[in-house]
Amino acid sequence: MGSFHQESNLVAKVCEIYAKISKLETLKPSKDVNTLFTELVVACIPPSSINIATLPENIQETRSKLIKLCGEAEGHLEAHFSTLLASFPNPLHHLDVFPYYSNYLKLSQLEFDILSQHYTTDHSVVAAVAPPVPKRVAFVGSGPLPLTSIVLALYHLKKTEFHNYDIDHSANTMASRLVSPDPDLSQRMFFHTMDIMEVTDELKEYDVVFLAALVGMDIKDKVKVIQHLAKYMAPGAILMLRSAHGARAFLYPVVEPDDLQGFEVLSIFHPQDEVINSVVITRKESLSSEADHQNHDHHKIGIGSILPSSCKYCDFQKFNNPLNQMNIIEDLAMDHE
Fold it and tell me: 140: which of 65, 160, 163, 310 is 20 to 30 A away, CA to CA?
């Protein structure tokens, strides 16, 4: 009963904040905007057992509208700080002026560690001596402040090329100003103003593709992008996505395993600290694996299901997480003891 009241109070609180946000004249950074979105994030961060999918239709509609407002506000926030950073002679030396920079450091560290674990498994036996690293990475939906690409390039993948895709030319212009003064990143980071749905054969050139949380703010649109990537990415390439869990699903779309046809889901991780997004890592299936998967008896399995340990398509692996307040969703991994 206590849980029910907590969930009811949470939904009421979120709807109350949504009503205030929807009345704002602009979502550009200001005292009112910052206060309301901070209040929203604080309400949604604590671990919650709430199942977004079971909420009434009117609440689902409110959630969809709220996710779009969050995306719009995030775009304005990134543009604001990208412009501010560009005013410095060396923008990359001042990234900590962005208020959520520490979150990006934590999330990028987590994503790099997860990627390293799974990227080595499908490549060379010499991985124990010198783990292979991706030569070319694509980031879809990089925006005006591509912090994930920048942090990965600066601290983790120091020899890798990063190709950032965004449909907004002005976002790419702002982003390129941040890296152009840097002698290293300016040679390894590229910006493409394109709709990813129009990018085809080039996708085969990437070892890893990152899909931003706000590409496809409606899950139907996100699934279309995922299907496009499944069609054109190279077999064996890695796709990393960001999702949401519990009350955090009021802020970002949720990607279910069933949304990832054509990919083998390797692991899903749910943060429990101030890092909001869950991390999903998948591998593009080979043609033969894809054919097998079509005949797979239980491939349409939701997040709440227990997955058979003998099933290669449902092998959600546990991960020794380097970040203290992170945990993998235990209900998706069988105990092999």
Answer: 65
